[in-house]
């Protein structure tokens, strides 16, 4: 089972789904007092986290919305409400009903040529099919993306890209998943979509967890929690605790997993997310069982079953009450019709006497309303500017933390692969001395070889520590490091002419730590290859700044090589791999007159 996406419902941006202050209860109680268009729009605007918290009342609202949209002939609104109703059925695991409602919505929206909304509906349909028919799910998601890309609607395509990444992650295509999810995250930042950012970071965390990169997964969950806390997204905050719990559960840290499941269960109980609360109790029991704590496992299993039974009973009772209300309504409709007729006659008389008064009051209210609206609009604008600035600062902080973490993880891997293997070689060489008889001269020669290799390892270790201790590396740092290396080479390699050329006025040139260590390693490897294999007598290192790009060339006058036969050797594959890590262009030109290695990347 794909642990991180089966339970959570990430389609936060449905058709026109703006967050508003309308609650289920207030809308439910005011159905008969508002104009049909007002009711329809408020139903369309209901956020996902709101309508899944009160399923039975939401069903009544959606049915009423379908009736009003049909009566008023508003086909686009009908398609939107059918789509939201289908999402509610998916949340209840009633997938056949969800499928039928969503297909009806798509048919109507396509007939009305509302391709943006049809594209979003296709995306929602594909997402809901993920656990039943993944291939169809991917097909409908791609169809929705095609519509939205043709419409060039960034706001609409944003969540569909995100959820398409979820399906790709579930299909084990994690690199493709990260591509679409990070593409969606970039759009969210452009749109300043604070709600979507919480979901975007959470989805990327899920995908990194699928790659078993739990450390980065936790970083992205924390980023999501920071955004959701700032905007008071209660549903998102609650879901993030489950994300964190499941990461610890996959790491088999069951104690920590239980801690976060319990936090989620408490919030789910507070905000009436019954399905999410059930899910937490189910997996708390599972974690206790894995810890051989069968007593607590049984207790939470019973809580899960009790909540499940309670939810089923409430749904049954609500349906009975709804039928009773319908019966009583039909019985009283005739009495109400007669009463309304009498009231209309009286109202007509009163209306004549009060028309002038209403005109006067209306004018006064109109003027007062204009003043109030101007004041309110300015106040909202000021608040929006403050929130946007706060969100921008939070995003910059999160982005810097994530980039620095990824760079340090990459350098740590280099430290493990490079220095670790060198130390292993030294240990093995020393151990082997015990099993052979050496003359004094051979023993000294062996010690000299090990000593030389050890010094090289210490140098590599210092270079790596140099990079890890810096959040950014200036051009002067890299130039100084390269100069020291070349000067050391000049001293130890007599007969070879070294030349190092670099530009002046580089105060504003800065690299991240990963770029710095990879560039330095490529220069080292290129010079070593020129000395050991090409038998060069002159080596030139050039640094050139071209606009926002840094271009580095290592040129020698050695004997060159045939790339078709030397491709895998002499450290070439290592240099190419490092160039790929920093998104650099990598080029090798070689002939019998020498070799030129060039890398170019954006600073």
Model description:
By secondary structure, this protein is of the alpha+beta class. The chain folds into 3 domains: 1-186, Alpha Horseshoe (Serine Threonine Protein Phosphatase 5, Tetratricopeptide repeat); 271-323; 412-602, Heat Shock Protein 90 (2-Layer Sandwich). Helix content is 74%, strand content 7%. It is built from 21 helices and 7 strands. The chain has helices at 24-29, 36-44, 48-51, 55-72, 75-91, 95-111, 115-128, 134-151, 154-170, 174-191, 194-210, 214-230, 234-250, 254-271, 274-290, 294-432, 440-468, 475-492, 513-532, 563-566, 572-581, and strands at 472-474, 497-501, 510-512, 538-546, 549-556, 585-591, 594-602. The protein has a 5-stranded mixed beta sheet, with helices on one face. Strands 1-3 form a two-stranded antiparallel sheet. It starts with 23 loop residues before the first helix and ends with a strand. The model is unreliable at 1-22 and 322-329 (pLDDT under 50).
**Number of discrete helical segments:** 21
CATH superfamily of the largest domain: Histidine kinase-like ATPase, C-terminal domain
CATH topology of the largest domain: Heat Shock Protein 90
Spatial order of strands in the largest sheet: 2-4-5-7-6
Would you list the SSEs in sequence order as H and E?
HHHHHHHHHHHHHHHHHEHEEHEEHHEE
User: How much of the polypeptide forms β-strand, as a percent range?
Assistant: 5-15%
Helix content: over 70%
- Structural class category: alpha+beta
